[in-house]
Amino acid sequence: MELVIYDREGNFKKKVSPDSSSRWSEEVASEFVVSVNFTTWEFFVLSVGDYIEVGGKRFSVKKEYRPKKTNTQKYTYNIGFYGREHDMQDLLFCRLNQGSDDLESVFAYDGTPMEYLQKLVDNMNRNTDGVTWRVGEAISANRQTINFNGLYCWDAAAEIAQAFETEWWLDGEYLNLSKCERGERVTLGYMKGLKTGLTQSENSDSIKWFTRLIPVGSTKNIDPSKYGFAHLQLPSRATYIDLNTQLGLKEHREESAFSDIFPHRLGTVSSVRSEEKTNEETGDYTVYYVKDNDLPFNPDDYMIGGEVILITFESGDLEGREFECNWHNDTKEFEIINTYPDEDTQIPGGNLIPKAGDTYILTNIRMPDEYYPIAEQQFEQAVENYLKEYSRDISIYSSDTDYIYVDKNEIPLLLGQRVKLEDEQYFAEGYLDTRITRVERKLTNLSEASVSCSAAVSSSWKSSIESSLDNLQYVLASQTEKTSLFDIIKVGDGKQPSDYNVFSALKSLSTLLRKDQADSTNFLVRFLGGLEVGKAIDSLIAGSGIIMDKNGRIQASSLELRNSLTVLELIFNRLSAQEGDYSYSESGLIESIEELSEGTYRLLLRKRHDTDFNAFAVNDIIYGSVNDLLAGGGSYRTSWMRVIETNTTDNYIDVVMYPDSEVPGGKNYQPEELMAITRRGNTTDEDRQGYWYISSYEKCICMLDGVTKPILEESNYSILIGKMKNLSIFDNLPINYRQSYIYCRGLIRQDDIRVDVEGKPVYELVDRGIWQEGEKYYFEARNEVTGRNEISTVYHRGSKWQCLKTGTLLEPKWNSTDWAFLEGNGEFSIDFESSNGFSFFYGLIDTVIEAKFYHGTVDITEDVMNTAGTQIAWSRDSGIPAEDNSWSPVFVDGQKNKVHLISSDMGSEWLNARSVTFRVEAIIPLGEENYLRESEELSFNL
Predict the structure, then answer these.
(1) Is the pTM value of this prediction over 0.70?
(2) Which residue, of 126, 806, 812, 911, has the fewest CB within 10 Å?
(3) Taking the CA atoms of the chain, what radius of gyration do you get in angstroms?
(4) What is the pLDDT of residues 587-626, one digit of tens each?
(5) Strand 891-892 vs strand 488-489: parallel, antiparallel, or unpaired?
(6) Looking at the DSSP assignment, which residues form a beta bridge with residue 793?
(7) CB 587: neighbour CB atoms within 10 A?
(8) Which of 329, 331, 333 is nearest to 292 (CA)?
(9) Positive or negative, the Cα torsion across 15, 16, 18, 19?
(10) Alpha-carbon gap, residue 384 to 388, rounded angstroms
C-alpha cells in the first residue's frame, strides 16, 4: 500500500509505503489518529498541516516532525496524523457574546444542548484553515449553567457532554451532541465477520448500571391532598421495576431523571399586552399580560395552597425562562412578575418579551383530573426506557475481524455502527444489541481490524433514550438554521415516535403494515372498531365471511378447535347451563374411566396444557358433579371418592367410591367422563384438609378446615361469608337467616369501624387512665395510633372526666370547657379559715376570715377568684337588722373572699346575744349563660 502525503495547501509532498504495524485508531470522544510507520532513503520534514487521506477522511500533522536516522542513508518515521476532531484541541472555547473578537475563555454559560453545540461550532469555525464545521443533532434537555475556565473546545465538549449525560461525535462536517449510534444493525459473530472469539472486559466504574429501578416521580403540579401521593405515580402504583435480573439484582433509586415529567398542558399565547407603571423605589417599569384563549380551565379553581403559579416559556424569545405570575380571572390573563438580573435590566423587557404564538407550561398549580393519567403513562414510558438502557450489559466485547467476510458483506466498521453481536455462550438470548465504540484498523488492509463494542462509554441515558415526552426528543438542526425542528427516525434508531419526529421512508416500510402487498408482524394488533374478513354479511342464516365487532361478538361459518373451549355461558337450542359451585382447590377433568373392581376406578385426567399434571395426593377426598340441564332436566349427580393412588407421568388417579351412607344426600353416583372433580379434604394429611368454595345455591363463600370425610361436621366450617348455615352454635343468637353475615373462628384486626343504622360512626368511651399533660385526647374522632373511633376519658384528682375537644391541652377541672365531669365527688362547697380561731373574749376580736371554695376535695379558690364575672357578697346577722343592713365588710388587700373582723364588727348587742353570724354568697360563671350560686354561714361565739 502506498500513502500520499500532502502539504497544508494540498500540494503533493511525498508518497510512502507504511509497514504492517501502521494503524488507524478511532474511539468515541477519545482518539482519532492514524499512526504511520515507514522508512525512506531520503530526509524530509513533516510540517504542521501536512495531511493524508484515509477512508475518505483527512488526518493532519499537529507538530513538526523529523525522522530518526537509522544509518547514513536510511530514515525511520513513526508519525501520528490526527483527525479533524483533534482540531478541537487547538482552539479555546470562547464566549463570543460580542462577536468573533470576544475571546474571553473564563466565563459561565447558560443554555440548552443545542445552544452549547452552536457555540462549539461557532468557536471551531474561527479556524484559519478554511475547514467548515456545522451543527448536527443534539438532545433536548433543560438549560444548564456550566463554568468554563480556559478550556479548549475538546475539553469543553467533554464537559458539556458530561453535564447533559451524553456524548459528542463528528459525522463529516457535522458535530453532534448525542449518543454516537448510527446505521442499520449488522450481525457480527464468530465465523460471521469475526475470526476470533469474543474477549470481555469491564467498562468504566462511572457508568451507571442496575437491574431494579426504584423510580420517584416529580412533585410538580402534585397536590397530595387531591392526588393522594406527594410524587407522580406509575399507573400500576408499583414502587419498583425489574429488568434483566438474571444478571444479578442491583438496585438504583432515581428521581432527577423524571423530575420534568409531570401533569401539564402546553399552552399557546393568543395575545400580549403591556402596561407602564411606576414604583417609588425602582421607578418606571413595564408589566406584561399574556392571554390564552384556549385555556380550558380557570386556574383559580386549581390553586395549591401557599404556592405561586409559575409560567415557563417553551418557545419564543423567552424560551426556557421561568417567571412567577398572577392570574386575573376577570380579564382571563396572566400577569408576568418581572425579574431584574441587574439594576438596568428588566425581564421581560427589551428584546426578551412574550409574543403571540409562544408556547408555555404552568407549574405550582393542580391540573384537571384528565391530565394525570397522561402524565402517569409518560412517566411509565420513561421509566421503562430508563431501565432498559441502564440494565443492559455494559461490558466491552472485543474481537478481530475476518476481512474477507467484512469485504464480502460490506460491513461498515464505523464508530457508532449498530451491531447484533452473536455468541450463544456469552449471551443468554444468543446475541447482544450493541454498537462499535472503538476500531483499530491495519493501514495496509482497512477491513482487518480489532473492534470493541459496548452499550455505553459514559452515563448517557438522555442521549440514547427518547420517550414521547417533549423534553426527551431529539432535534436535528439544519445546515444554517439552528431553529429547524426535524427529527427523522431512521432504520435502527431506538427513538420513540412522538408529535415531534417523523419516520424515514425505509423506517416506514419496516415498521408500518403494508396495504399494497402481504405483510406480517410479530406483535399484537388491536382492531378497536372490529374486523371483517372476506365478503362479510351479518346474518346467522344467510351470512358470509367473518365478522368481529367491537363488542366482542364473532360470527363465522364454522369454528374448529384443536384443544378445548372455555366459556362462562353456553347457549345451545335456547338452553343455558352453568355450574353453581366454584371450587378453589386441586382439580381435574375426567378424560376416560376404567373400572378396576367394584367401586374402584382408574380416572385418566385430561392434560389442559403441555406441562399439566394431576396434583391430587393419596387419601384426598374428591368429588364431582354433573347435570342434565342440556337434556331438559334439572337434576344433579354427585360422585364422592377417595384417592388411593396417583400417577403424574401418565396423568391418572385410582379412586374408591364412598358408600351411600357416608355421603351427603345418602346417594353416591359413579364418576362420569368429562366430570370436573376437585379435592374437598384428606383423611390423614392435615395440610390438605382445607377447602375454599363459592356457592350460588348456598349463597355464601365458605372456607372448610379439618375435612376428613364427605359429610361435614359443624367444626369444619372455618369461615362463612353470606347466608349462614343452620349450625347449633347459632341457636341462641338473634340471627336472621335471610340476611348475610360473616362468621370466622378467629379474627386478627387492625381497624374496627362501627356505624349506626344511618351509617354514622359510633364512638366509644376509651379509658385512658390517669390524665397526662401533653398526651393527645379525642372527642368523637379517630385515634391515629389505635384506629378506634374514640371519646377519651381520664382520671384526675380523684374524679373521672370526659374529653370534649380533640387535641385539648387544658387540665381537666371544674371550669374547663374542654372536659366534662363524669364521676367522683363533684359537689361545690365553701369553708372558712380564721387567722385567730372562731371563739373570742369580749373586746378582744381581731382576725382575718377567708372563704375557701372546693370542688369535691379540690381547693379551687384561686380559680374562682381569677374567673371573670365572679361575684362575692358578705352579710351579717347580729339580731339588730338596722345595724346589720348598714354593716359593710373590710376586705384584705382587695380580695373579696377575705374580710378583717374586729370587735366593732360584732354588733352592739354581742355581749348580751353572745353570738353573731356572718354569711358569704358567691355567684360563679360557668360558660356563656350558666353560673353557680353557693353560700355558707359562719358563727362567732363569745
Answers:
(1) no
(2) 911
(3) 46
(4) 999 999 999 999 999 999 988 777 788 889 999 999 998 8
(5) unpaired
(6) 767, 802
(7) 17
(8) 333
(9) positive
(10) 6
